[in-house]
Amino acid sequence: MEAPVHPGLPLIGSILDLQRDALGTFEKASKLGDIVKLKLPYFKGYVVSSPELIEHVLHDNYKSYGKQTRGYAALRTILGNGLLTSEGPFWLRQRRLAQPAFHREKLGAWGDIMVRATRDLAASWAPRLQSGAAFDVHEEMMRVTLRIVGEALLSTDLTAAAGEVGAALGPLLKVLTERTSRLLPIPDWVPTPANRRLVTGRARLDAVVHTLIAERRATEAGDDLLGMLMAATDADTGERMNDAQLRDEVMTIMLAGHETTANALSWVFVLLGQHPHVEAKLREELATVLAGREPTAADAPKLVYTSAVLHEALRLYPPVWAIARSASVDDAIGGVPVPKGALIFFLPWVVHRRASVWPEPEKFEPARWLPDGQRPKSRCAFMPFSSGPRKCIGDGFALLEGTLVLATLLQRVKLSLVPGQSLEPEPVFTLRPRYGVQVTAASVA
Ligand code: HEM
Predict the structure, then answer these.
(1) Which one, of 72, 410, 130, lies nearest residue 273 by Cα?
(2) To the nearest whole number, what is the mean pLDDT of the chain?
(3) Residue 344 Cβ contacting ligand 1 at under 6 Å
(4) pLDDT tens-place string over residues 266-295
(5) How far apart are CA 226 and CA 238, in angstroms?
(6) Contact (CB, 8 A) for 433 and 426
(7) How far apart are CA 428 and CA 175, in angstroms?
(8) Of 283, 268, 263, residue with least CA distance to 414
(9) Ligand 1 in reach of 35 Cβ (< 6 A)
(10) Nearest residue CA, atom 23 of ligand 1?
(11) Which of 145, 184, 248, 425 is the most exposed place for a label (fewest CB within 10 A)?
Protein backbone atom coordinates (compact mmCIF):
# COMPACT_ATOMS: atom_id res chain seq x y z
CA MET A 1 0.00 0.00 0.00
CA GLU A 2 1.26 3.48 -0.89
CA ALA A 3 0.68 6.58 1.22
CA PRO A 4 -0.83 9.67 -0.42
CA VAL A 5 1.87 12.25 -1.19
CA HIS A 6 1.74 15.86 -0.03
CA PRO A 7 2.84 17.79 -3.12
CA GLY A 8 6.14 19.63 -2.98
CA LEU A 9 8.67 21.27 -5.30
CA PRO A 10 11.23 19.20 -7.18
CA LEU A 11 14.36 18.53 -5.10
CA ILE A 12 13.46 20.68 -2.11
CA GLY A 13 9.99 19.19 -1.58
CA SER A 14 8.03 20.94 1.19
CA ILE A 15 11.00 22.56 2.89
CA LEU A 16 10.08 26.16 1.98
CA ASP A 17 6.47 25.60 3.06
CA LEU A 18 7.72 24.23 6.38
CA GLN A 19 9.99 27.23 6.86
CA ARG A 20 7.15 29.63 6.09
CA ASP A 21 4.27 27.93 7.88
CA ALA A 22 5.05 24.67 9.64
CA LEU A 23 1.67 24.32 11.39
CA GLY A 24 -0.29 24.97 8.19
CA THR A 25 1.88 22.65 6.09
CA PHE A 26 1.56 19.72 8.48
CA GLU A 27 -2.17 20.41 8.81
CA LYS A 28 -2.64 20.35 5.05
CA ALA A 29 -0.61 17.17 4.69
CA SER A 30 -2.56 15.43 7.46
CA LYS A 31 -5.85 16.08 5.63
CA LEU A 32 -4.73 13.66 2.88
CA GLY A 33 -4.83 10.57 5.11
CA ASP A 34 -3.80 8.81 8.32
CA ILE A 35 -0.26 8.44 7.00
CA VAL A 36 0.98 10.82 4.30
CA LYS A 37 4.30 11.04 2.52
CA LEU A 38 6.04 14.39 2.86
CA LYS A 39 8.62 15.30 0.21
CA LEU A 40 11.87 16.40 1.83
CA PRO A 41 15.41 16.74 0.53
CA TYR A 42 17.73 13.97 1.82
CA PHE A 43 15.02 12.15 3.79
CA LYS A 44 11.85 10.22 3.29
CA GLY A 45 9.25 11.78 5.56
CA TYR A 46 5.82 10.64 6.74
CA VAL A 47 3.17 12.52 8.68
CA VAL A 48 1.16 10.14 10.85
CA SER A 49 -2.07 11.59 12.20
CA SER A 50 -4.30 8.82 13.43
CA PRO A 51 -3.85 8.01 17.12
CA GLU A 52 -3.96 4.28 16.39
CA LEU A 53 -1.05 4.47 13.94
CA ILE A 54 0.92 6.69 16.33
CA GLU A 55 0.48 3.98 18.97
CA HIS A 56 2.37 1.65 16.64
CA VAL A 57 5.38 4.00 16.65
CA LEU A 58 5.33 5.04 20.31
CA HIS A 59 4.10 1.85 21.97
CA ASP A 60 3.84 -1.39 20.01
CA ASN A 61 7.00 -1.10 17.92
CA TYR A 62 8.82 1.69 19.75
CA LYS A 63 12.15 -0.14 19.63
CA SER A 64 12.24 0.37 15.85
CA TYR A 65 12.04 4.17 16.15
CA GLY A 66 14.75 6.41 17.53
CA LYS A 67 15.67 10.03 18.04
CA GLN A 68 18.18 10.35 15.18
CA THR A 69 16.29 13.29 13.70
CA ARG A 70 17.32 16.79 12.71
CA GLY A 71 15.27 18.22 15.56
CA TYR A 72 17.04 16.11 18.13
CA ALA A 73 20.44 16.85 16.53
CA ALA A 74 19.65 20.55 16.99
CA LEU A 75 18.55 20.00 20.59
CA ARG A 76 21.75 18.08 21.35
CA THR A 77 23.79 21.21 20.62
CA ILE A 78 22.27 22.65 23.80
CA LEU A 79 21.15 19.69 25.88
CA GLY A 80 24.03 17.34 25.05
CA ASN A 81 23.25 13.72 25.86
CA GLY A 82 20.68 14.13 28.66
CA LEU A 83 17.45 12.35 29.48
CA LEU A 84 15.50 13.89 26.60
CA THR A 85 18.09 13.39 23.88
CA SER A 86 19.90 10.15 24.81
CA GLU A 87 18.89 6.69 23.63
CA GLY A 88 19.28 2.96 24.27
CA PRO A 89 20.69 1.42 27.46
CA PHE A 90 22.31 4.70 28.50
CA TRP A 91 18.95 6.51 28.41
CA LEU A 92 17.28 3.64 30.30
CA ARG A 93 19.87 3.83 33.06
CA GLN A 94 19.51 7.58 33.42
CA ARG A 95 15.71 7.35 33.38
CA ARG A 96 15.80 4.77 36.18
CA LEU A 97 18.13 6.98 38.18
CA ALA A 98 15.88 10.01 37.76
CA GLN A 99 12.49 8.33 38.19
CA PRO A 100 12.44 8.16 42.03
CA ALA A 101 12.79 11.96 42.19
CA PHE A 102 9.32 12.18 40.59
CA HIS A 103 7.64 9.87 43.10
CA ARG A 104 4.14 10.74 44.26
CA GLU A 105 5.33 11.24 47.83
CA LYS A 106 7.06 14.43 46.63
CA LEU A 107 3.76 16.04 45.62
CA GLY A 108 3.13 17.70 48.98
CA ALA A 109 6.49 19.44 49.10
CA TRP A 110 6.30 20.43 45.44
CA GLY A 111 2.82 21.86 46.02
CA ASP A 112 4.12 24.12 48.78
CA ILE A 113 6.94 25.37 46.56
CA MET A 114 4.56 25.98 43.63
CA VAL A 115 2.06 27.95 45.74
CA ARG A 116 4.76 29.98 47.51
CA ALA A 117 6.44 30.94 44.24
CA THR A 118 3.10 32.01 42.73
CA ARG A 119 2.14 33.99 45.83
CA ASP A 120 5.46 35.87 45.59
CA LEU A 121 4.91 36.48 41.89
CA ALA A 122 1.45 37.93 42.50
CA ALA A 123 2.88 40.11 45.29
CA SER A 124 5.53 41.44 42.88
CA TRP A 125 2.71 42.64 40.62
CA ALA A 126 1.39 45.07 43.26
CA PRO A 127 2.66 48.22 41.49
CA ARG A 128 1.07 47.04 38.22
CA LEU A 129 -2.20 46.39 39.98
CA GLN A 130 -2.13 49.96 41.22
CA SER A 131 -1.10 51.60 37.97
CA GLY A 132 -3.02 49.31 35.62
CA ALA A 133 0.12 49.06 33.46
CA ALA A 134 0.10 46.27 30.87
CA PHE A 135 2.72 43.51 31.02
CA ASP A 136 3.63 40.25 29.30
CA VAL A 137 2.22 37.40 31.39
CA HIS A 138 4.19 34.88 29.30
CA GLU A 139 7.45 36.36 30.58
CA GLU A 140 6.08 36.16 34.13
CA MET A 141 5.14 32.52 33.66
CA MET A 142 8.67 31.76 32.42
CA ARG A 143 10.02 33.36 35.56
CA VAL A 144 7.77 31.52 38.01
CA THR A 145 8.13 28.10 36.36
CA LEU A 146 11.92 28.46 36.33
CA ARG A 147 11.90 29.27 40.03
CA ILE A 148 9.64 26.27 40.71
CA VAL A 149 11.71 23.72 38.79
CA GLY A 150 14.87 25.11 40.40
CA GLU A 151 13.55 24.82 43.94
CA ALA A 152 11.62 21.57 43.55
CA LEU A 153 14.06 19.44 41.56
CA LEU A 154 17.44 21.14 41.92
CA SER A 155 17.04 22.78 45.38
CA THR A 156 18.41 25.95 43.83
CA ASP A 157 17.09 29.48 43.72
CA LEU A 158 17.11 30.38 40.03
CA THR A 159 15.24 33.66 40.52
CA ALA A 160 18.31 35.76 39.85
CA ALA A 161 19.11 33.75 36.71
CA ALA A 162 15.62 34.06 35.22
CA GLY A 163 16.46 37.14 33.12
CA GLU A 164 19.61 35.51 31.78
CA VAL A 165 17.91 32.19 30.97
CA GLY A 166 14.92 33.88 29.32
CA ALA A 167 17.12 36.20 27.25
CA ALA A 168 19.31 33.32 26.06
CA LEU A 169 16.47 30.91 25.37
CA GLY A 170 14.29 32.99 23.02
CA PRO A 171 16.92 33.47 20.27
CA LEU A 172 18.27 29.92 20.82
CA LEU A 173 14.91 28.30 20.15
CA LYS A 174 14.65 30.23 16.88
CA VAL A 175 18.17 29.26 15.77
CA LEU A 176 17.56 25.60 16.59
CA THR A 177 14.22 25.57 14.81
CA GLU A 178 15.78 27.07 11.67
CA ARG A 179 18.25 24.18 11.69
CA THR A 180 15.49 21.59 11.44
CA SER A 181 14.23 22.93 8.11
CA ARG A 182 17.44 24.23 6.57
CA LEU A 183 18.20 23.20 3.03
CA LEU A 184 21.94 22.80 3.47
CA PRO A 185 23.54 21.88 6.76
CA ILE A 186 26.12 24.46 7.89
CA PRO A 187 28.70 23.20 10.41
CA ASP A 188 28.74 24.80 13.86
CA TRP A 189 32.20 26.32 13.38
CA VAL A 190 31.17 28.52 10.43
CA PRO A 191 30.70 31.98 12.00
CA THR A 192 27.25 32.71 10.59
CA PRO A 193 25.09 35.10 12.65
CA ALA A 194 22.92 32.12 13.66
CA ASN A 195 25.91 30.06 14.79
CA ARG A 196 27.22 33.03 16.77
CA ARG A 197 23.86 33.38 18.50
CA LEU A 198 23.98 29.67 19.28
CA VAL A 199 27.44 29.85 20.82
CA THR A 200 26.61 32.95 22.88
CA GLY A 201 23.27 31.59 24.07
CA ARG A 202 24.75 28.25 25.02
CA ALA A 203 27.58 29.93 26.93
CA ARG A 204 25.07 31.99 28.93
CA LEU A 205 23.07 28.90 29.86
CA ASP A 206 26.24 26.91 30.60
CA ALA A 207 27.36 29.58 33.05
CA VAL A 208 24.10 29.24 34.98
CA VAL A 209 24.26 25.44 35.05
CA HIS A 210 27.95 25.19 35.94
CA THR A 211 27.51 27.61 38.85
CA LEU A 212 24.56 25.59 40.06
CA ILE A 213 26.50 22.32 39.97
CA ALA A 214 29.60 23.81 41.60
CA GLU A 215 27.54 25.29 44.44
CA ARG A 216 25.83 21.98 45.01
CA ARG A 217 29.09 20.02 44.96
CA ALA A 218 30.22 22.20 47.85
CA THR A 219 27.25 21.13 49.99
CA GLU A 220 25.65 17.83 50.97
CA ALA A 221 23.63 15.99 48.30
CA GLY A 222 19.90 16.10 49.09
CA ASP A 223 17.10 13.79 48.03
CA ASP A 224 15.94 15.98 45.12
CA LEU A 225 16.63 15.05 41.51
CA LEU A 226 20.04 16.72 41.43
CA GLY A 227 21.06 15.03 44.68
CA MET A 228 20.01 11.64 43.33
CA LEU A 229 21.93 12.13 40.10
CA MET A 230 25.04 13.27 42.01
CA ALA A 231 24.91 10.38 44.44
CA ALA A 232 24.28 7.67 41.82
CA THR A 233 27.12 5.27 41.12
CA ASP A 234 27.60 3.09 38.06
CA ALA A 235 26.77 -0.55 38.89
CA ASP A 236 29.81 -1.82 36.91
CA THR A 237 32.49 0.76 37.61
CA GLY A 238 31.28 2.27 40.88
CA GLU A 239 31.98 5.70 39.39
CA ARG A 240 29.89 8.81 39.99
CA MET A 241 28.41 10.81 37.15
CA ASN A 242 30.97 13.29 35.84
CA ASP A 243 30.36 17.04 35.55
CA ALA A 244 29.81 16.88 31.80
CA GLN A 245 26.98 14.36 32.13
CA LEU A 246 25.57 16.17 35.11
CA ARG A 247 25.61 19.38 33.06
CA ASP A 248 23.53 17.72 30.32
CA GLU A 249 20.97 16.36 32.78
CA VAL A 250 20.65 19.63 34.70
CA MET A 251 20.36 21.66 31.48
CA THR A 252 17.64 19.27 30.31
CA ILE A 253 15.62 19.51 33.51
CA MET A 254 16.07 23.26 33.75
CA LEU A 255 14.90 23.90 30.17
CA ALA A 256 12.42 21.06 29.55
CA GLY A 257 11.07 21.58 33.05
CA HIS A 258 9.99 25.21 32.78
CA GLU A 259 9.49 26.55 29.28
CA THR A 260 6.80 24.03 28.33
CA THR A 261 4.74 24.65 31.47
CA ALA A 262 5.12 28.42 31.03
CA ASN A 263 3.69 28.13 27.52
CA ALA A 264 0.80 25.99 28.75
CA LEU A 265 -0.10 28.56 31.41
CA SER A 266 0.19 31.46 28.96
CA TRP A 267 -2.27 29.76 26.61
CA VAL A 268 -4.61 29.16 29.56
CA PHE A 269 -4.68 32.91 30.18
CA VAL A 270 -5.34 33.59 26.50
CA LEU A 271 -8.25 31.12 26.47
CA LEU A 272 -9.71 32.37 29.75
CA GLY A 273 -9.53 35.94 28.44
CA GLN A 274 -11.44 34.85 25.35
CA HIS A 275 -14.02 32.77 27.28
CA PRO A 276 -15.18 34.73 30.35
CA HIS A 277 -17.91 32.18 31.17
CA VAL A 278 -15.21 29.51 31.63
CA GLU A 279 -13.23 31.78 33.91
CA ALA A 280 -16.37 32.49 35.96
CA LYS A 281 -16.94 28.75 36.41
CA LEU A 282 -13.32 28.23 37.39
CA ARG A 283 -13.57 30.98 39.99
CA GLU A 284 -16.73 29.38 41.35
CA GLU A 285 -14.86 26.12 41.84
CA LEU A 286 -11.97 27.88 43.59
CA ALA A 287 -14.39 29.62 45.95
CA THR A 288 -16.22 26.35 46.75
CA VAL A 289 -13.24 24.06 47.18
CA LEU A 290 -10.80 26.47 48.78
CA ALA A 291 -13.15 28.94 50.48
CA GLY A 292 -10.44 31.61 50.46
CA ARG A 293 -7.55 29.54 51.83
CA GLU A 294 -4.43 28.77 49.80
CA PRO A 295 -4.41 25.54 47.80
CA THR A 296 -2.12 22.61 48.58
CA ALA A 297 -1.20 19.55 46.54
CA ALA A 298 -3.96 17.67 48.40
CA ASP A 299 -6.53 20.06 46.88
CA ALA A 300 -5.43 19.43 43.30
CA PRO A 301 -7.62 16.32 42.76
CA LYS A 302 -10.62 18.31 44.00
CA LEU A 303 -9.99 21.19 41.56
CA VAL A 304 -11.67 19.22 38.81
CA TYR A 305 -12.73 22.13 36.62
CA THR A 306 -9.39 23.94 37.01
CA SER A 307 -7.65 20.79 35.85
CA ALA A 308 -10.15 20.45 32.97
CA VAL A 309 -9.30 23.98 31.81
CA LEU A 310 -5.60 23.11 31.87
CA HIS A 311 -6.14 19.88 29.91
CA GLU A 312 -8.26 21.65 27.32
CA ALA A 313 -5.57 24.32 26.88
CA LEU A 314 -2.97 21.55 26.47
CA ARG A 315 -5.21 20.04 23.79
CA LEU A 316 -5.66 23.25 21.80
CA TYR A 317 -2.15 24.62 22.32
CA PRO A 318 0.16 21.66 23.01
CA PRO A 319 3.48 23.23 24.09
CA VAL A 320 5.34 20.44 22.28
CA TRP A 321 3.42 20.76 19.03
CA ALA A 322 5.47 18.28 16.96
CA ILE A 323 7.34 15.08 17.75
CA ALA A 324 9.56 13.18 15.34
CA ARG A 325 11.25 9.80 15.18
CA SER A 326 13.51 8.06 12.67
CA ALA A 327 12.91 4.45 11.62
CA SER A 328 15.94 2.38 12.65
CA VAL A 329 14.78 -0.62 10.55
CA ASP A 330 12.41 -1.17 7.63
CA ASP A 331 8.88 -1.26 8.99
CA ALA A 332 5.27 -0.71 7.94
CA ILE A 333 2.81 1.73 9.49
CA GLY A 334 -0.85 1.06 8.75
CA GLY A 335 0.20 -1.17 5.85
CA VAL A 336 2.46 1.52 4.32
CA PRO A 337 6.09 0.38 4.01
CA VAL A 338 8.40 2.76 5.86
CA PRO A 339 12.09 2.36 4.99
CA LYS A 340 14.94 2.48 7.48
CA GLY A 341 16.06 6.10 7.98
CA ALA A 342 12.63 7.60 7.22
CA LEU A 343 11.46 10.45 9.42
CA ILE A 344 8.10 10.02 11.08
CA PHE A 345 6.30 13.15 12.26
CA PHE A 346 3.33 13.09 14.57
CA LEU A 347 1.90 16.29 15.82
CA PRO A 348 -0.07 16.82 18.99
CA TRP A 349 -1.23 20.04 17.26
CA VAL A 350 -2.77 18.04 14.41
CA VAL A 351 -4.11 15.05 16.37
CA HIS A 352 -5.72 17.29 18.99
CA ARG A 353 -7.51 19.27 16.27
CA ARG A 354 -8.71 16.33 14.16
CA ALA A 355 -12.48 16.27 13.81
CA SER A 356 -12.52 12.46 13.55
CA VAL A 357 -10.82 12.25 16.97
CA TRP A 358 -12.22 15.26 18.83
CA PRO A 359 -15.74 16.46 17.91
CA GLU A 360 -15.82 20.23 17.34
CA PRO A 361 -12.05 20.27 17.72
CA GLU A 362 -11.59 24.04 17.54
CA LYS A 363 -14.02 24.66 20.40
CA PHE A 364 -12.55 25.42 23.83
CA GLU A 365 -14.70 23.10 25.91
CA PRO A 366 -13.22 22.14 29.30
CA ALA A 367 -16.33 20.01 30.04
CA ARG A 368 -14.80 17.31 27.85
CA TRP A 369 -12.43 16.64 30.75
CA LEU A 370 -15.03 16.36 33.51
CA PRO A 371 -15.66 12.84 34.85
CA ASP A 372 -18.75 12.39 32.63
CA GLY A 373 -17.16 14.10 29.59
CA GLN A 374 -16.78 12.36 26.22
CA ARG A 375 -13.18 11.64 25.31
CA PRO A 376 -11.58 9.41 22.69
CA LYS A 377 -10.20 6.12 24.01
CA SER A 378 -6.86 5.87 22.19
CA ARG A 379 -3.72 6.40 24.28
CA CYS A 380 -2.44 8.84 21.65
CA ALA A 381 -5.59 10.91 21.08
CA PHE A 382 -4.34 13.35 23.74
CA MET A 383 -0.58 13.42 23.71
CA PRO A 384 0.84 16.71 25.00
CA PHE A 385 3.40 14.70 26.98
CA SER A 386 3.90 12.12 24.19
CA SER A 387 3.18 8.49 25.06
CA GLY A 388 4.92 5.17 25.60
CA PRO A 389 8.30 4.56 27.26
CA ARG A 390 9.67 7.97 26.21
CA LYS A 391 6.73 9.84 27.68
CA CYS A 392 7.57 13.04 29.57
CA ILE A 393 9.00 12.28 33.01
CA GLY A 394 7.58 15.55 34.34
CA ASP A 395 3.91 15.16 33.33
CA GLY A 396 2.59 14.79 36.88
CA PHE A 397 4.80 17.65 38.04
CA ALA A 398 3.56 19.90 35.22
CA LEU A 399 -0.13 19.11 35.79
CA LEU A 400 0.15 19.78 39.51
CA GLU A 401 2.07 22.97 38.80
CA GLY A 402 -0.40 24.19 36.21
CA THR A 403 -3.34 23.59 38.55
CA LEU A 404 -1.75 25.21 41.61
CA VAL A 405 -0.28 28.21 39.79
CA LEU A 406 -3.66 28.90 38.20
CA ALA A 407 -5.58 28.50 41.44
CA THR A 408 -3.17 30.64 43.46
CA LEU A 409 -3.04 33.42 40.88
CA LEU A 410 -6.76 33.60 40.17
CA GLN A 411 -7.52 33.77 43.88
CA ARG A 412 -5.58 37.03 43.92
CA VAL A 413 -5.89 38.68 40.54
CA LYS A 414 -8.09 39.09 37.52
CA LEU A 415 -6.11 39.27 34.29
CA SER A 416 -7.56 40.98 31.22
CA LEU A 417 -6.10 40.61 27.75
CA VAL A 418 -5.04 43.91 26.23
CA PRO A 419 -7.45 44.30 23.28
CA GLY A 420 -6.24 44.30 19.69
CA GLN A 421 -3.05 42.30 20.24
CA SER A 422 -2.09 39.39 17.98
CA LEU A 423 -2.15 36.11 19.90
CA GLU A 424 -0.64 33.95 17.23
CA PRO A 425 1.22 30.74 18.11
CA GLU A 426 4.84 30.60 17.04
CA PRO A 427 5.94 27.02 16.35
CA VAL A 428 9.56 27.07 17.39
CA PHE A 429 10.55 23.92 19.27
CA THR A 430 7.70 24.76 21.56
CA LEU A 431 4.46 26.54 20.79
CA ARG A 432 5.04 30.03 22.14
CA PRO A 433 2.81 33.08 21.89
CA ARG A 434 4.73 34.90 19.12
CA TYR A 435 4.37 38.38 20.60
CA GLY A 436 3.86 37.38 24.24
CA VAL A 437 0.54 37.83 26.02
CA GLN A 438 -0.11 41.42 27.10
CA VAL A 439 -2.45 41.70 30.07
CA THR A 440 -3.52 44.11 32.75
CA ALA A 441 -4.16 42.84 36.27
CA ALA A 442 -6.67 43.86 38.91
CA SER A 443 -6.95 42.67 42.48
CA VAL A 444 -9.88 40.36 43.30
CA ALA A 445 -9.54 40.62 47.05
C1 HEM B 1 3.23 21.23 30.13
C2 HEM B 1 4.47 20.87 30.37
C3 HEM B 1 5.24 19.84 29.60
C4 HEM B 1 5.03 19.35 28.34
C5 HEM B 1 3.94 19.73 27.35
C6 HEM B 1 6.07 18.37 28.09
C7 HEM B 1 6.15 17.61 26.93
C8 HEM B 1 7.07 16.59 26.73
C9 HEM B 1 7.08 15.71 25.59
C10 HEM B 1 6.11 15.76 24.42
C11 HEM B 1 8.12 14.85 25.75
C12 HEM B 1 8.51 13.71 24.80
C13 HEM B 1 9.34 14.16 23.64
C14 HEM B 1 9.54 13.04 22.63
O15 HEM B 1 9.07 11.93 22.84
O16 HEM B 1 10.20 13.27 21.60
C17 HEM B 1 8.77 15.19 26.99
C18 HEM B 1 9.88 14.56 27.49
C19 HEM B 1 10.54 14.97 28.63
N20 HEM B 1 10.15 15.97 29.50
FE21 HEM B 1 8.47 17.05 29.40
N22 HEM B 1 6.88 18.31 29.18
C23 HEM B 1 6.41 19.17 30.13
C24 HEM B 1 6.93 19.38 31.39
C25 HEM B 1 8.09 18.82 31.85
C26 HEM B 1 8.63 19.03 33.17
C27 HEM B 1 7.99 19.86 34.26
C28 HEM B 1 9.81 18.33 33.21
C29 HEM B 1 10.80 18.19 34.34
C30 HEM B 1 10.55 18.47 35.53
C31 HEM B 1 9.99 17.69 31.93
C32 HEM B 1 11.07 16.91 31.58
C33 HEM B 1 11.10 16.07 30.49
C34 HEM B 1 12.15 15.10 30.24
C35 HEM B 1 13.39 14.88 31.09
C36 HEM B 1 11.79 14.39 29.09
C37 HEM B 1 12.53 13.23 28.44
C38 HEM B 1 11.98 11.94 29.04
C39 HEM B 1 12.61 10.68 28.49
O40 HEM B 1 12.78 10.57 27.27
O41 HEM B 1 12.89 9.81 29.31
N42 HEM B 1 8.93 18.00 31.15
N43 HEM B 1 8.11 16.25 27.57
Answers:
(1) 410
(2) 93
(3) no
(4) 999 999 999 999 999 999 999 999 999 999
(5) 18
(6) yes
(7) 9
(8) 283
(9) no
(10) 260
(11) 184
Interval 332-362: pLDDT, tens: 999 999 999 999 999 999 999 999 999 999 9
Residue nearest to atom 17 of ligand 1 (CA): 392
Helix-helix angle 70-79:162-180, to 10 degrees? 150
Report whether residue 256 contacts ligand 1, using a CB cutoff of 6 Å: yes
- The closest-lying atom of ligand 1 relative to the alpha carbon of residue 152 is 30
- Any bridge partners for residue 36, and if so which? 47
Ligand 1 in reach of 397 Cβ (< 6 A):
yes
What tens digit of pLDDT does each residue of 208-239 get? 999 999 888 888 667 789 988 888 877 777 77
Q: What is the per-residue pLDDT across 11-61, written as a single tens digit (0 to 9) for each? A: 787 888 888 899 999 999 999 999 999 988 878 899 999 999 999 999 999
- For the chain, which domains are there? 5-443 (1.10.630.10)
CA of 387 from ligand 1 middle (Å) equals 10
> Considering just the CA atoms, what is the radius of gyration of the chain in Å?
22
Q: Burial-class residue 240 by CB neighbours within 10 Å (0-12, 13-18, 19+).
A: middle
Predicted structure pTM score: 0.95
